[in-house]
Amino acid sequence: MASPERIGVFDSGLGGLTVAMRIAQQLPKESIHYFADTLHVPYGPRPDSDIRAFAGGIVRNFVRQDAKAVVAACNLSSAVALEDLAQEVDIPLIGMIRPGARAALEASSGGPIGVLATEGTVRSGAYARAIQALEPGRPVIQVSCPNFVPLVEAGRYDSDEALTAARMYVFPLIQSRVRTVILGCTHYPFLDKILRAALPSTTVLVDPAEAVTAQLARVLEERDLQWHGSPAPHQFEASADPGRLEAAVKRWMGLKVRAENSRLWSAPAEDHGLAAARG
Question: Could you tell me whether strands 69-72 and 234-238 are parallel, antiparallel, or unpaired per DSSP bridges?
């Protein structure tokens, strides 16, 4: 390739930055274009038709801007929109569900798999279908967590309010003796500390972002889409309140951000971590 076409990454808000951070860590030469649909966050309570419309518009815009691959860093978009969109565009589209389901089964030593997710993702049943397609008969306990996304978006992911919500949401998982839990929303890794306090110490939390990044790396290699030159600046964009996205990128990704043409641009950093978010 003559230029470092970007990898499109999108979510309803700030949560998909957990996936963008993982990609930046594992694929440091690649350039990311992150889009936060903060105008419509949270996606969870919305009808599937809205999610398909939002995701379709975002993916088509990435294609128009010459993205070489797109990661739907949104479990609900992955569940209800990605299959149809994959038939429409000719670049790789990678979602959260199948990689997350596979990673959970690999991490599990048996028993039910738990899924903490938004209302829409639970309603879709996508994780249950993906898990049982890989291992028929494996029980799946899904719990909708409507308070989590607003808490993370407001920066209250380490609050007493978040701990109270976490204890309520994980109670059915504890009752069912779940020992492997999928974080079925990209906002939820910011709640890692809270969830570990609410769950038994032996519980394994599975963040699908790692498996998604590994799949992205394989796809880029297989299709000869890897960038081998100097890293280009990442690009961050929000459909509303870009200042909140700018603050999150600075705090969570450790990047210096500058505004240009109503978008946020950032030079690649040596260390992209979740330490600030989890600390």
Answer: unpaired
Decide: 180 and 203 in contact? Cβ < 8 Å: yes
One-letter amino acid identity for 231? Answer: P
Q: Which of 74, 113, 165, 198 is catalytic?
A: 74
Cα angle: 95, vertex 15, 23; to 5 degrees: 55
Q: Which of 71, 185, 248, 249 is catalytic?
A: 185
Among the listed residues 214, 146, 207, the one whose alpha carbon sits nearest the alpha carbon of residue 182: 207
Q: Who's near 239: CB < 8 A, 6+ residues apart?
A: 35, 36, 37, 38, 39, 40
Report the half-sphere exposure of 77 (CA within 13 A, side-chain side). 30
pLDDT tens readout for residues 182-193: 999 999 999 999
Separation of alpha carbons 67 and 65, rounded Å: 6
Joined tokens for residue 12 = 């309803």
| DSSP-derived secondary structure for 238-272 | ESS-HHHHHHHHHHHH---EEEETTEEEE---S--
And the tokens for 192? 């890692």
Question: Using CA of residue 57, residue 62, residue 66, residue 69, what is the dihedral sign?
Answer: negative
Tell me the pLDDT tens digit for each residue of 30-67.
Answer: 999 999 999 999 999 999 999 999 999 999 999 999 99
Active site residue 145: no
The arithmetic mean of pLDDT across residues 150-159, rounded, is 93
